[in-house]
TrEMBL record:
InterPro entries: LexA/Signal_pep-like_sf, Mito_IMP1_subunit, Pept_S26A_signal_pept_1, Peptidase_S26. PANTHER family: MITOCHONDRIAL INNER MEMBRANE PROTEASE SUBUNIT 1, PROTEASE FAMILY S26 MITOCHONDRIAL INNER MEMBRANE PROTEASE-RELATED. This is LexA/Signal peptidase. GO terms for biological process: protein processing involved in protein targeting to mitochondrion; signal peptide processing. The keyword Hydrolase applies. The active site is at residues 58, 104. Its main location: mitochondrion. Keywords: Hydrolase, Membrane, Mitochondrion, Mitochondrion inner membrane. It comes from Morchella conica CCBAS932. Belongs to the peptidase S26 family. IMP1 subfamily. SUPFAM superfamilies: LexA/Signal peptidase (SSF51306). Residues 31-115, 126-165 form the Peptidase S26 domain.
Length: 182
């Protein structure tokens, strides 16, 4: 009984520090590295990339109804470097104050003409105004998008969706070609 609780009560890790206590210089260096790591992680996830969670049927079959974790590139915020066909994450234009974010596909950039057909109504051509883009979900009958609330201001775009992490890891690419190539 004594052997069970006496000899084996200390872990190998604890015994290692009894034999070789760390020097204050090593502790300080480790502390600095931890702070540097936290700083760079904050910089990376706060200003360059973020991870988000999606739900809803509007982006089927590209994304699942529940449970997709996506990577968002903030380098493309406010419409920088966006093209028709890109998946974007933006603040919902109707509920801006709530902070609700949505993921949709860009189908029109400033100056482009798009068919603005509310679900079930005959379509009409609309020119996307300067400083805006036109977005729709991939699952048109179940998507609440620009056909309902109009063009989205580029200032509301928080980033471009570049990958799905879970489930089934997938990197998104814009496979659309300019019309001149067809």
């Amino acid at each position: 009984m004594n052997r069970l609780f006496g000899t084996f009560s200390k872990s190998r890790f604890a015994r290692l520090f009894e034999l070789h206590p760390p020097e204050p210089r090593v502790i300080a260096r480790t502390g600095v590295r931890v702070v540097q790591g936290i700083f760079f992680a904050h910089l990376f996830w706060g200003h360059f990339y973020s991870v988000g969670y999606t739900f809803g049927a509007s982006m089927l079959p590209t994304m699942n109804i529940l449970g997709d974790w996506i990577v968002i590139s903030k380098l493309h915020s406010r419409g920088r470097g966006m093209e028709v066909g890109d998946l974007v994450n933006y603040l919902h234009p109707v509920y801006v104050g709530s902070g609700e974010r949505v993921v949709k596909r860009i189908i029109g950039m400033p100056g482009d003409f798009v068919v603005a057909d509310p679900v079930g109504a005959p379509g009409k051509m609309v020119q996307v105004p300067e400083g805006h883009c036109w977005t729709t979900g991939d699952n048109l009958p179940f998507s609440h998008d620009s056909r309902n609330y109009g063009p989205v201001p580029l200032a509301l775009i928080r980033g471009k969706v570049i990958a799905r992490l879970f489930p089934n890891r997938l990197w998104f690419e814009n496979t659309l070609k300019p019309a001149e190539e067809y």
